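Moderator note: this is an archived Q&A kept for reference. The question asked for a predicted structure of one protein chain; the sequence and the answer are reproduced below.
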Amino acid sequence: MDRPALLVGVASALGAGLAWGLVFVAPLILPDYPPALLACGRYIAFGMIALIPAWLDRRRMARLTRADWLEAMKLGLVGNLLYYTCLASAIQLAGAPVPTMIIGTLPLVIAVFANLGAERVSWRRLAVPMGVLAGGLLLVNHHEMRQLEGAHPPAGYGLGILAAVAALACWTWYPLRNAAWLKAHAAIAPGSWATAQGLASLPPAIGGYLAWGMISGRDGGFEWPLGPRPLIFVMVMLLIGLLASWLGTLLWNRASRLLPAALVGQLIVFETLAALVYAFALRGALPDPATALGIALLIAGVLLGVNLFRRRPLSAGSIIVAEPPS
């Protein structure tokens, strides 16, 4: 495919992964805050931050149709709120190891489903980068797998696994649907579409936050609405709302428009890599040899995947339509 488009698309996916990796840092900074509250707080911040670019970009935003807003709401509900609710529930019900490994298969699952569409490549050629990615994911999750040895499943373990699979399904559907919509609506700029998703996520996020407050208010187990460290909570929510949500979505939209869906699916691994780097930086430690080898395999898998599509000519169904300037 076109080399400049490939480079810009991969760089955009890398930027999105670096931004999304910050989401995994928030629970480490705020361990005394429930995951569901962090998810709602993130998307409230996303929606409020989106009000600023929405006003600055009001001419383009006014061109969005009712169908566009309905699509943005569906993407926001499934890819944002429902995904994080399922993931948080899975971790609470089944513990962290198994849900982490299930969600860790996202780059492979998305690449497989994407390759069933119009922008498909030979399964034999796709198997090489996907195999390398699979090996890397196994190695970086070796710590979680060790925790399963001799462990007794907690109560609600089965429901937790179902919730993790539901989270996997949500974020398999989201990037494929989002990419298809962007390529079918070339007049919508990636930034405008990111803003629209933020605005569409705001009402349900506020509703979820209020509902959580009503539930927590009954048992008195949490200092609602802002918890025990309100200033830190607000600052972290604003940070990930701006970087992980708005900027990350904008960059991912750009990558989704420029790159074939099967390649974009593999590039979600950038989020895993960023989360690992941030986690080790917070710990002030270096990864153990198995994890380091896993990271190297993940990087190698990405390079193999990019090289596969660099050599592949564009099919009629994957011609890039120039987007209007931002």
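Archived answer notes: The chain has a mean pLDDT of 84.
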